[in-house]
C-alpha cells in the first residue's frame, strides 16, 4: 500500500497513525523518520473536518519529542487550511493550544505522579516544548484575522487565571504563588512575550487587558520573603502563617514569571509608541510606575541575591520605555523624582537599581532629561560618595554619559 493511498481510506486511523509516528524511537531513527515524514505529508491531504478532530486527540504521553512533533504537525495542518476552514475548527484548535500551555505544570514534580508518568523531564526539554508550542501558535496567528487574536488572547487569559486553590486559601501569596499556578504562569507569560515580540503593534491593543492581571502578580511578588522551610513543613504551618512567605524553589519560579512580565511590559511600551494607547488609559501610566517602583525594593529578588542584575537587565529598561512614552514633562518629573528617592534607600542594591534606571532613562530620552539635571545632581553627588563601590561606579558612569551628551563637565555642580 503506497503512502499516496492513505488519505483515501485511512482517516479513521489517523489518530493511531500519528501516535506511532511521534514515538521517540521513530523520530530518533533517521531512516524511519524519512518515511514518517512522507506519511505526515500524506495525512495533511485528509479533509480538515476529518483530520483536525483526530489530530487534537492524539496522546503524546507527555514525551517531550513527541509533544514537539505534534505541535509542529498541528501547526502545519492548520496553516495548510483556508482561513474559512480554520474558522470552522477554531474552537477545537484554540482549545488544543490553550490546554497545551500546561505542559510545564503537568510534568513538574508533584503533578507527574498523578498522571502516572515514570520519567523526569528536564528544564531544557520543557523549554524545547514551549518553543515548539510558541512557534506553531505564531505561524497560525499570522494567518488569521485580528479578531481571532482577540479571541485567543482572551482564552489564554482565562486559562492562566485558573487556580484550584483560589477557593481554599486565604493568603494572596498562597493563591498566586503556589507551584502549580507558577508553572502555568511561566509558560503563559513566556508565550505572550513571544507573541507580542512577533506580532508587534498588532498585539498592542490587548496590553491593558493583559497587564492588569500581570501587575497584580508583580506588586504581590515584591512583598514575598524567602523561607528555608520545605514545602511539607510549610503545609503543616499554613494556618499559623500571616502570609507572604515562599520557599526558595517557588521564589525562583516567581522571579522567572516577573522577568517575563516585565519583558512583556517593555515590549508593550515599545510598540505602544504609535498611538499612545496605554498613556491614554486613564490612570494607567501611574499604575505602571507604581508597579515598577515596587520592584526597586522587591524582597523577593533581594533575598535571592539577584536584585542588582534584575534591576539592570529587566526593571531599568521598563522604566526607560515608560519615560519615553510620557508626553508630559510634569509626568516625567514625577517619574524621575520617584526614582531619585530610591537613591537614599538603606539597601545598597536598591540605590544601585535607582542609578541604573536613571542611566537607562538618560540613554532613552537624553534631551528630555536634561532640564531635570538640577534636581538630579545632588543625588548624583551622594552616589559618588556612596559607601558601596558598585553604587559609586554606576553613578560615575552615568555622570560620564551625561557629560558626553552635554559636551561639558558637570563636576562643579557636584560639590
3D architecture notes:
The structure is a single chain. The protein is mainly α and 415 residues long. It has 24 helices and two strands. A two-stranded parallel sheet has the order 1-2. Helix 6 (64-79) packs parallel to helix 10 (123-143), helix 14 (207-221) runs parallel beside helix 17 (284-296) and helix 19 runs parallel beside helix 21.
Based on the model shown, name its key terms.
mainly alpha, about 0% strand, about 425 residues
Write the layout of secondary structure elements.
Blueprint: H1 6-9, H2 14-21, H3 24-28, H4 30-43, H5 48-55, H6 64-79, H7 83-88, H8 90-99, H9 103-107, H10 123-143, H11 146-160, H12 172-176, H13 179-199, H14 207-221, E1 225-227, H15 231-237, E2 245-247, H16 248-271, H17 284-296, H18 299-303, H19 307-325, H20 329-342, H21 348-364, H22 366-369, H23 373-384, H24 389-406
Parallel strand pairs: 1-2
Helix pairs in contact: 6-10, 8-11, 10-13, 13-16, 14-16, 14-17, 16-19, 17-19, 19-21, 20-21, 21-24
Amino acid at each position: 500500500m503506497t503512502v499516496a493511498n492513505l488519505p483515501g481510506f485511512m482517516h479513521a486511523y489517523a489518530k493511531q497513525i500519528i501516535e506511532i509516528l511521534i514515538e521517540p524511537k521513530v523520530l530518533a531513527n533517521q531512516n524511519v523518520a524519512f518515511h514518517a515524514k512522507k506519511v505526515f505529508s500524506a495525512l495533511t491531504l485528509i479533509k480538515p473536518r476529518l483530520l483536525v478532530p483526530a489530530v487534537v486527540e492524539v496522546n503524546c504521553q507527555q514525551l517531550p519529542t513527541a509533544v514537539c512533533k505534534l505541535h509542529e504537525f498541528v501547526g502545519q495542518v492548520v496553516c495548510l487550511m483556508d482561513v474559512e476552514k480554520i474558522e470552522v475548527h477554531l474552537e477545537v484548535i484554540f482549545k488544543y493550544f490553550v490546554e497545551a500551555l500546561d505542559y510545564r505544570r503537568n510534568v513538574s514534580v508533584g503533578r507527574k505522579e498523578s498522571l502516572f508518568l515514570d520519567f523526569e523531564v528536564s528544564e531544557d526539554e520543557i523549554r524545547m516544548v514551549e518553543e515548539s508550542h510558541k512557534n506553531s501558535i505564531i505561524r497560525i496567528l499570522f494567518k488569521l484575522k485580528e479578531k481571532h487574536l482577540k479571541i485567543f488572547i482572551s482564552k489564554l487569559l482565562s486559562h492562566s487565571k485558573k487556580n484550584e486553590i483560589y477557593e481554599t486559601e486565604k493568603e494572596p501569596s498562597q493563591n498566586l504563588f503556589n507551584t502549580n499556578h507558577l508553572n502555568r504562569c511561566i509558560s503563559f507569560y513566556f508565550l505572550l512575550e513571544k507573541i507580542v515580540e512577533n506580532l508587534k503593534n498588532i498585539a498592542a491593543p490587548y496590553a491593558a487587558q493583559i497587564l492588569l492581571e500581570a501587575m497584580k502578580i508583580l506588586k504581590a511578588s515584591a512583598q514575598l520573603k524567602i523561607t528555608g522551610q520545605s514545602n511539607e513543613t510549610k503545609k503543616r504551618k499554613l494556618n499559623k502563617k500571616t502570609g507572604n512567605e515562599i520557599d526558595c524553589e517557588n521564589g525562583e519560579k516567581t522571579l522567572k514569571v516577573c522577568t517575563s512580565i516585565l519583558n512583556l511590559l517593555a515590549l508593550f511600551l515599545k510598540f505602544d509608541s504609535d498611538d499612545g494607547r496605554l498613556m491614554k488609559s486613564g490612570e494607567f501610566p501611574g499604575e505602571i510606575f507604581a508597579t515598577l517602583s515596587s520592584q526597586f525594593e522587591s524582597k523577593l529578588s533581594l533575598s535571592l541575591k539577584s536584585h542588582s542584575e534584575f534591576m539592570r537587565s529587566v526593571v531599568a529598561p521598563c522604566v526607560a520605555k515608560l519615560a519615553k512614552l510620557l508626553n508630559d514633562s510634569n509626568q516625567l518629573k514625577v517619574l524621575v523624582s520617584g526614582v531619585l528617592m530610591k537613591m537614599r534607600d538603606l539597601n545598597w542594591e536598591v540605590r544601585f537599581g535607582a542609578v541604573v534606571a536613571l542611566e537607562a532613562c538618560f540613554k532613552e530620552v537624553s534631551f528630555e532629561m536634561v532640564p531635570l539635571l538640577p534636581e538630579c545632581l545632588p543625588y548624583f553627588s551622594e552616589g559618588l560618595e556612596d559607601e558601596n563601590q558598585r553604587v559609586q561606579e554606576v553613578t560615575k558612569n552615568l555622570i560620564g554619559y551625561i557629560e558626553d551628551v552635554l559636551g561639558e563637565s558637570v563636576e562643579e555642580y557636584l560639590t
